[in-house]
Amino acid sequence: MRPRLPPTGLIPRALFGLAAALALAAFAWPVRIDPTPSPAAPWTEPPGTAALQRPLFDPGRRAWTARGSRETVAEGEPPRPVLKVRGIRLDGAVSHALIDDGSGDRTWLKAGEGRGDWRVTAITPEHVTVDQRGRRFTAAFMGPPATLRPKPLDPALRR
């Protein structure tokens, strides 16, 4: 049976042999591994380079130039109260809201009442408005509306 590829000449075979010899030599060649270099000596700054000693955006880096105190700006907005409206009761002109603030105290609050630094300012059938340090928040009541009627008295109890 004859090979399907034509025979190669002497030059391509010699080049292939040379490349194979170089690959084996590179693989087997001993390589000297140096120990890890010692860490560099700490860099000492010349005097007068205080700018490099503190972070660039450190608030204490320079004198305060903005209007207002630094505490007011750093404080930011007051945290929003985490309130859940559990119920709204409308009884004629008087309205109450059952608000869960996580304290466990379940009492019906009317406008003007509250806990901590928040107060109920308005109660409507759909939502309750709360004021916290001058900021107003609206909590929507997502429950279904219900009409509550007292049970009729038993005739034996009417005497």
CATH class of the domain at 84-140: Mainly Beta
Percentage of β-strand residues: 15-25%
Shape: elongated
Q: Which regions are unreliable across 5 or more consecutive residues at pLDDT < 50?
A: none
Assembly state here? single chain
The order of strands across the largest sheet is: 4-5-6-7
Order of helices and strands: HHEEEEEEE
Radius of gyration from the CA trace? 41 Å
Structural class: alpha+beta
Write the CATH fold name of the domain at 84-140. SH3 type barrels
* CATH architecture grouping of the domain at 84-140: Roll
Topology, number of strands: 7
Helical percent range?
10-25%
Largest sheet: 4 strands, antiparallel
Describe the structure in your own words.
With 159 residues, this protein is of the alpha+beta class. It has a domain of 57 residues: SH3 type barrels (Roll). It contains two helices and seven strands; from the N terminus they run H-H-E-E-E-E-E-E-E. The strands form two sheets. It has a four-stranded antiparallel sheet, with no helix packed on it. It has a three-stranded antiparallel sheet with strand order 1-2-3, with no helix packed on it. A hairpin with a 2-residue loop joins strand 1 and strand 2. The longest helix is centred in the first third of the chain and has 19 residues. The chain is elongated, with a radius of gyration of 41 Å. The mean pLDDT is 76.
